[in-house]
Amino acid sequence: MSQETEARGRRKGRTGVVVSNKMAKTAVVQLTRQFAHPLYGKRMKRTKSVHAHNEQGAAVGDTVRIVETRPLSKLKRWRVAEIISRAE
User: Fold this and answer.
1) Beta strands in the chain (DSSP E)
2) With contact defined as beta carbons under 8 Å apart, do 51 and 78 qualify?
3) Residue 10 CA from chain centroid, whole number
4) Any alpha helices (H) in the chain, and if so which ranges?
5) What angle do CA 65, 2, 68 make, to 5 degrees?
6) Who contacts 36 (Cβ-Cβ below 8 Å, separation ≥6)?
7) CA–CA gap between residue 5 and residue 12 (Å, rounded)
8) pLDDT tens across 30-65, in order?
9) How far is the C-alpha of 65 from the C-alpha of 47, rounded, in Å?
10) For residues 64 and 72, what is the distance between their CA atoms, to the nearest angstrom?
């Protein structure tokens, strides 16, 4: 993987949960981030859903690592790099 990364430069990587895999070779991955409210300091949670190319066969509920890639379709700009844990 290190040669692959060096050849193509640094790519963003995120960890998320698959919420849908009904499309052919595509998974919808939900990314969750937590941050402190700028004024009150309370922890806030925000989610974002992205479409990822799914050659690995990730199923709903799986935790996956996704990486940036070139645009593969109208909505897909990510691909599933690995499945971290399977859903119970």
Assistant:
1) 13-23, 26-36, 43-53, 63-68, 76-85
2) yes
3) 16
4) 2-8
5) 40
6) 42, 43, 44
7) 11
8) 999 999 999 999 999 999 999 999 999 999 999 999
9) 16
10) 19
Q: How many CB atoms lie within 10 A of CB 37?
A: 9
pTM across the whole model: 0.85
Q: What is the DSSP letter of 6?
A: H
How far apart, in whole angstroms, are the C-alpha atoms of residue 60 and residue 70? 24
Residues in the chain: 88
Q: What is the CATH number of domain 12-85?
A: 2.40.50.140
8 A C-beta contact, residue 78 and residue 72: no
Q: Are 13 and 41 in contact (CB under 8 A)?
A: no
Residues 6+ apart with CB under 8 A from 24: none
